[in-house]
Structure formats: structure tokens, C-alpha cells
């Protein structure tokens, strides 16, 4: 035997090996088997057409087919499954997806595909189809898609359609499909907090229209439907109109009354609906300790509420001033945690401002005093992360359950961070950049906290970032400005290292898992900014104040996805004497509309209708006049909404 040609062997060794993944090999093999109809041991039959396939593949993906082929019944023995009332072309489309991953979607067949995929429990296909439908919800199809989601108990599509229904309730109410909703679907819709109605009487009018479409069959359900009307939120004039309209339907009204103040009205009604709020931007001046000690102006009101639509500003009630606290918001509630007192001591306090009550309340304190910490909200929980106190830098973190009103420790951060861009998205918390530990090194990465798992993960960044701002959008997180460098930053003993980094106008978009988007581009700011306040208001991102290199800045800019550049707002932060030598935080707070605000902030006690029931008695039967003197109303024990 000739010896091997070592030169040839070496040359072959130098050639790169072709990498074949198990996933790609499996995918190509399935395509080939499907094309050649090989190794088929089952047959699906639809519309008289036969589809040979592999039962192991079907059973591995579909719980439906797993049950069919392991049941011991005829289908399991013979391998033939009759799918009655299923279009052969729809089944072919789904089988092509199972074998090749290719699914054909267009408007003419997508709802039939959804129905078939739901019936066969093909979850991977159902995920793609649901996403396609949600992206194409309109006023014309939302009620039909909502019923489709209910019929097949599809949570993803149900959430998407309910969200759309809530936002467009007024126009959907007028659609020809609305009267055709079944009773259960209507109750689900009118019970939702997400309805974009400015008054509760709009919900009653939806009930009224549905009943009038078929009064002979639906009048019996009127009492049940009215239990979902939030009567304490109706003004006396609206209540009188509801009574009159019910009488016009041939029914007699019986109401329950209670003595309530504004807070009682709100509590008994179960809260306001989405459209009963207006958004406002709260600007929170977060001073450093030396600013507190040197400032001469009245700093009791260092938070103001801005309406960008009108430019009007109102001050929030007094709260004791602290340096560098945590600030976050949860719908109509603003939270301030920790900070540093003028005497140098650190605070562990938690304060809550309710825009409905227009007052501050002190809640249970954190277990650890902290300042310069990240403070985030996510699904009825608050998270105080890292920071600093008189013991030094903190790796600890804790969460506050807003419902239970209790603090609990969570997993420590793997590194101590300050001045990170922070945001919550999809049940995770993101800390982007910041300065790490006590060595004054800018962190070149992202910390991601998984809330259900109580674990931290680190994702590297290709650059260093410090003092940036972050805003959560519907599909990801927008990161804005900051001190930026593509070089690794060494420690600086003078503790002013951030001034040695260049300030940047750069902005970028990040998906979940810390992946920087290459598809979504955010235009650069008009000038370099760090430590700016940023929030999302009515689909726009607003950026306020901040530091431009070493100078403070008082302009306001906004940008909406799809726009080519940022637009400067006509006013600036210094319009009413604002002092800018401090970090600025911005949050978007929900504030009740003026008419409702007056109703729920009224401290006086009055007689309020809290429940109603209807009967078939004649219109003139007013046996027991109610305390208001209106003879058509009687006091009974009726259920409250």
C-alpha cells in the first residue's frame, strides 16, 4: 500500500468543514419524504382526497393526532383518519407546513386555516396564523375574529381582538356585526377595563342597542347585562337618562342606593375604564444632594404634570424632597422610593401618588435604604434594584407587591450598577449599561432579570453606555443618548469618568433578550444628550432636559415611529422657572377626565345609585319612593356591579 500523500492530507485538513445542523438535516429529510410520499403509515382523508403521511410526525406535533393514534380505536389500527367538513386545500396547506415549515397565508383562507389548525391542535401553525390575524385586525373584521377566538378558546387572538375592541369601541358599536354577538361575548366586552369610553353611559348604550336588535328574545337578559354597568360612575343626569331608556323598553326600574363619597364611588364601581383617563407626562426633578442644600427656591413641588397637547402644567401635591430617589409609574399611580435626605441619611420610604385621589400616601418601606437605584414596575409589582447607601454600593434587590402591600427580596444582581438605562418588557427587567461596582468602570453589557424565574442573565454589548434613557414600546425598548464609547473604559480614580466619555445623540431599538434591532432604526437626537427624561405619550417618545456634554439642556423633543427625525416641542422645561442642575425623570401618568375627577374626588357623602334591577311591572307602580324623591325609583336589595 502506498503511503498517504501528507501534502494532500494537510491540504484537505486546511479546508473548512461544512457544518450541518441537526435541525437543517431534519428539515431537509422531512421535505424529501413528503415529496416522495415515503415511510407513510397513516392517511388523512378530507373532501374525498387522501393525504398519505407519517403518524409519528403528526403525533409529535399535535395532541389531537397523538390521541387518535394511541387510542386503540379503528383510526389507530387502520391509520385512516376522516376529517369531515375540512377543505382539502386547507389540509394540504397545513401538512406542507408540518413537513417543510412553509405556510401559505392570505386573507381569503386565513380564517379557515385558523379553524382547521385549532381543530387539529397544530400549535406551531396556530401561532403564525394568530399573529397574521392580529396584525390585520380592522373595524370590519374585529367582531368576527373575536367570536372566532372565543369559539376556539385561543388566548392570543382573544387578547388581540379585545385590545382592538377596547380602543375602537365607539365605532365597533355601530358595526352591523355588533347586534349578532351572543350574550357571553357581550358580557365579556362590557366587563372590560380596556374600553375607550369617556362615560359609563356609552356602555349602557351598547347594551341598549344589543337588546333592541331582538327585544322579544333579549329583554330577559337585560337585568344580567345591567349588572356590568358601573352605576356609581354615572352623573345624576346620565342616571336619569338610563332610567328613562329602560322604561321605554317596557321595563320598570328598581335601584339600590348607598351613602358614598367620591372614593367610595370609585371603589364600589371597580375602577375607571381605559377611555375615562387622559395621559399626562409627569416631570420629576431628581436633584443631587448638593443641589438640595444650595437651592433657594421652594422645592416642595418638584414634580409637575404636563399636557403636551395644550402645554398646560400643574404641580403635584407636596412631598418631602430627597436626592436621587427611584421613580416609577403604574397606570394612575406614581411611586417615589428611597433617596438621600438633606442631613445625609438614606431613605427606605415608599410613597404613592394617586391621580384619582390627588394625594400622596406612605406605603410599607423597603427593607434596605437606597439611593441612585433603578426602580421599575411590571404587572402590579415594583422593583428596587441595586443603588447605594451609607454601607456603599448595593448588589441587593427587592420587589413590592402592590396588591398584597408587601416587600420581598429577589436575586442579587451579579454586579452593582448605577445610572443604567432601565425598562421592563415582557415580564423581564432590563438594565442597559451604567457604571459598574465601585471601580467606576462603564458596564459594557445588559443585565436581564427574568421575573418568574428570579434569575439574572448578562448579555454583552459592543459598546459602553452610561446615563442613557430607555422607553418601553409595544415591540421592544428604545435606548436614547448617554455617554457612549466603543472602547472598553478603564477605571478613573477621580470618579468623574463619565465626563471623559463622549456624549452621544445615538438612539437604537432593542428586542427582548437584549438583541439590538437591525430592522427598526431610530434617528439620532438633534444634539448629544445624557441623563435626559424620556417617556412614551400617545405613541410618541418624548425626551426632556438632560446634559449636553457638560452643560444642562432644557429643550423637549418628540419622535413617533416612522418619522425621519425628532421634532422640537414649542416650549421648554425652563418655561416656568425650572432649575435644571439635576437629573430629570419623566413618566406617563393616567389622570381621570375632568368630569369624573370632580365626581371621585368629592369628599362629601351623598346618595348614590349602586345597583339596578328591572321587572315587567307596569310603569306607574311606584310603591316605595326613593330618598331622592324621584317617584319612579324604589329602594331594593339589588346586586352591585
TrEMBL record:
Residues 40-107 form the BTB domain. Keywords: Kelch repeat, Repeat. InterPro entries: BACK (IPR011705), BTB-kelch_protein (IPR017096), BTB/POZ_dom (IPR000210), Kelch-typ_b-propeller (IPR015915), Kelch_1 (IPR006652), SKP1/BTB/POZ_sf (IPR011333). The keyword tRNA processing does not apply. Residues 617-641 are annotated as: Disordered. The keyword Nucleotide-binding does not apply. Gene3D superfamilies: 1.25.40.420, Kelch-type beta propeller (2.120.10.80), Potassium Channel Kv1.1, Chain A (3.30.710.10). This is BTB domain-containing protein. It comes from Phrynosoma platyrhinos.
